[in-house]
Write a structure and sequence with these properties.
- One of its GO terms (molecular function) is dioxygenase activity.
- This is Glyoxalase/bleomycin resistance protein/dioxygenase.
- Keywords: Dioxygenase, Oxidoreductase.
- InterPro entries: Glyas_Bleomycin-R_OHBP_Dase, VOC_core.
- With 110 residues, the protein is an alpha/beta fold.
- It has one domain: 2,3-Dihydroxybiphenyl 1,2-Dioxygenase, domain 1 (Roll), CATH 3.10.180.
- It contains two helices and seven strands, in the order βαβββαβββ.
- The strands form two sheets. A four-stranded mixed sheet has the order 4-7-6-5, with helices on one face. Strands 1-3-2 form a three-stranded mixed sheet, with helices on one face.
- β6 and β7 form a beta hairpin.
- The chain is globular.
Length: 110
């Protein structure tokens, strides 16, 4: 039985990624378990890992559930993070953003 999930996102520049993801998640990383790895934990066994792997950067996608996409969209806009606003997608609403390397983060919810 599966008990958790860590989405992995690969980036070129760890410092730039840390600044950007800190704005998105509204806090610093919860852990830096090894050089080149940042982690944000959102529940018991759920989170996002950001890896500095220049040769693989920009090809990741993570889908994250969000309880209020309108509030998130406003907060991201205030933080200077571009997006197209919430839209219909797959039977629910989604809000898509891209990090500086082009990795896609899709928030889904209401």
């Amino acid at each position: 039985m599966f008990t958790g999930l860590m989405a992995s996102i690969t980036v070129m520049d760890q410092e730039q990624a840390q600044d950007w993801y800190t704005k998105v998640f509204e806090r610093d990383p919860d852990a830096t378990p090894m050089p080149g790895l940042l982690e944000w934990h959102f529940g018991g066994e759920f989170g996002v890992q950001v890896w500095a792997e220049p040769q693989r950067a920009g090809y990741s996608t993570a889908v994250i559930g969000e309880s209020d996409l309108d509030v998130l969209a406003d907060r991201l806009s205030a933080a200077g993070i571009d997006h197209g606003g919430p839209q219909s997608g797959g039977g629910q609403r989604i809000l898509q953003i891209a990090d500086p390397d082009g990795n896609r983060i899709v928030f889904s919810g209401k």
